[in-house]
Structure formats: C-alpha cells, structure tokens
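Recap quiz, item 2
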Amino acid sequence: MHPQRKQRLQMVVFIVVAASLAVGLLLFALRGNINLFYPPADIAAGKAPVGQAIRAGGMVRAGSVVRAPDSLKVQFVITDYAADLTVHYEGILPDMFAEEEGAVVAGMLNDQGELMATEVLAKHDENYMPPEVAETLHPKVDAQHRGGYGQ
Amino acid sequence: MWAWFHKLGSPRWFYRISDLCLPWLTVAGLLFLVVGVVWGLLFAPPDYKQGNSFRIFYLHVPTAVIALVGYYVMAIAGAVSLIWKMKLADIVMKEAAVIGALLTFLALFTGAVWGKPTWGTWWVWDARVTSMLILLFLYIGVIALNNAFTHPEQSGKACAVLSLVGTVNIPIIYKSVDWWYSLHQPATIKFTERSTIHPDMFWPFVVITVGFYVLYAVALMFNTQTAILEREYRTQWVRDKVQQ
Amino acid sequence: MQFDSWQAFVAMGGHGLYVWLAYGVAVLSLVAGAMVQIRRRKSVLRNIRQHYNNESEV
C-alpha cells in the first residue's frame, strides 16, 4: 500500500479507537444512571433515593394484584425473586399488564418503603408465538384465555 | 485485486453496472416486500400475548436492522474516501446518510406506535430508544454537515470523520438491552442461538427483510447515480449519456 | 388467512389504529422518499441539458 494511504488508514483506525475509548469511559462513568429502573433488590438495599421520583422494574408477583372495588386504585408486588416491592397506583393499567409479566413503575418511595406510582408500564419479553402453540406449551396461559368463556 | 478496486471506484463503471442491475433489483425488491407484507398482515398468526399489534414487528425490526447496517455502509464508504480519496466512496457515504435517516425515523416511529399498545407509552428514555435517537441525530448530522459546505468536494473529510466517530454507537444500540435495565425487550432475532420467534411468524419477517435489503441497495445505487450526474456533468461520458 | 372478514382485518383485534398507523406512515414515507429522488434525478438531467445547450449557443 502507498505509504500516504497507509498513514491515512492509521488515522481512520485512530479515530474509531479514540472515539470508542472516549465513549466507553463515559458510559463506564455513567453506568448506573443509564439503567431505566432499579430492581427491587437495590431498593431493599437502600440504593434508591427516598422522596425523589424513581423507576422500579421487575415481575408482577402472581396473586399479588389487588384492585379496589369502587375506584381505580390498585396494589401489586413487583419482584426480581431476590426482594419484593409493594406498589400502589391509581389509574388505568396498560392492556399488557398481567401477573407474572414484567412491569416498570415510576413514582416515589414512601416511609414504609412502598412505591406510590404515578405511571405503570408493561414490559414484555422477546418471545413471539401463535396462541395455539402457547396453549400447548403453557397450560396456565390456556386456563387464563379460556377463563372468559365460562368454564 | 487493486485493479478491480480502482475499477469499482470509477463513477462511469459504477453508473453502467447500476444501470444493468437496477431494473431487476427494483422488481425483485418490490416483489419480496409486497409478498412479505401481505404474508405478515394476513397470514402470519397473531402473537399469544400481543395479538395483532405484533404485526408492527414486520416493519419495526427490518427498518431498525438496516438502519444499523446502513450506518456501517456509510462509515466504511467514509473510510475509503478518506484513505483513497475516492470520489465514488464520498458520494455513497452522503447518499447512505439520507436513506439511513429515513430508515431510522421509520424504526423509531413504528417503535412508538407499537409501544403504545404494548408498553402503555409512546416513548421512554431507556438505553435502546435513546441510543436509536442518537443514531438519527448522527445521520442528520452528516447530512447537515454536507449541506453546510458550498461544494460537495469540501465536506467529504468532515462527513467521513463524523461517520467514523459515530460507529461507536452501533454496538451500543445493539447491546443496550443486555447491558442496562431497559423497557425494550432483548433481541428476538439472534445470530448465535435460536431466535425466539415461532417459524410461522419468522418466515414473513425473512421475506420482508430481504425486500428491504434489496430496496436499500436500489435506493443507494439510484441516488448515487444521480449524484454522479450532478458532479461529473463536465465529463464526456456523461455528455454522451445525457444526449443520447 | 387469519381474518374472517374485511371488518376484522381492518379492526386488527382492536389494534387497528396502531397497525395501520405504522404501515400507513411507512408506505407514505417510502413512496415520498422515492418520489423526491425521482424528481431530483429529473431536475438534475434537465439542468445538465440546459447547461450543454447554453454551452453550444456560446
């Protein structure tokens, strides 16, 4: 290769390496702050600030969803299977919100270490399959789906 | 090898080869896209949890994938234009920026429209969505930088350096869902292990993605041809071409 | 075929707004992008021809 071109190739490599290094260091310095939410274990360990808006995320524990009979108030537990976090919310939950599904909630921790949520988002997983296949794989999903048809 | 490389760099040769390929590729690309979209909208089964909103997957994932791949096309063309001072590479880099920006916008838009029924929000500032927004700004940055100069010959170096610096963002976008807690789910289409999507839902995706790749190549070739005409109108071969 | 009727296809199980918004905007922006580039090609060719004609007149 022509020596001048070789020099320019080295410059190109240098630009990419230097930029990667700079951004890599930046991301390393910011590491915790890039997370969208705290898992319940971090909140239980006191890593999340109290009296300040935060987000928490985890799985909605099966059987933990309690809806008020006369209002939109709802209470549920999200878990990362290391610690639990009780969440209080008033409003309409997303369609995809369900027990044993992921959820991300935003709000403030109260004195009891429970989260008073102002927003609830559903987090879904990366698996896609037709309903018939899901029925054969997970009989439980089957039961949930059939629940509406007066079993 | 180098003879072939320099031939590739000749705008005249590129123009002639593109003229030969373009009609076939356009027909093939449109065919794949239409078949894939009809398959995805009408015949693919709905998802067991998301129902029919899952069909947005067929636009969201291909546009996002090609927006990322297209960034490497732009950056590699930028590197070639820096090292070899190849005019054709400079043109390809700038045209790739325009197409990449459109695809990134579509990936973000379809993502927002898909996020509303599945997550419960149009937008979230998580690592994946935010780094994808940065990708859009990088593409727009290259376009704006190019437009800031009066002559396209002057902007090449600046655009190429910005493209190269921005390549850092591509692995970050790709790995963001594994490195940080995000609302966006991890990748469904995987290279090293089995994809977590049922075959009945996977094949329409493959057909649409092939269609998008082919039409990406068509758009890049066609727009590059136009830019070649713009820049090379003083040469004899363009004169012959235009006046025939 | 996953849908029994035209209405069911349009409704997309209640997600019609989202599915058709995504597909509609995608088709519109791809077609618009193609049209902009075809127009650009035509205007470039027109300008070049004009340039050649002006040259030959001088």
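The mean pLDDT of chain C is 93.
Residues 6-57 of chain C form one domain.
End of item.
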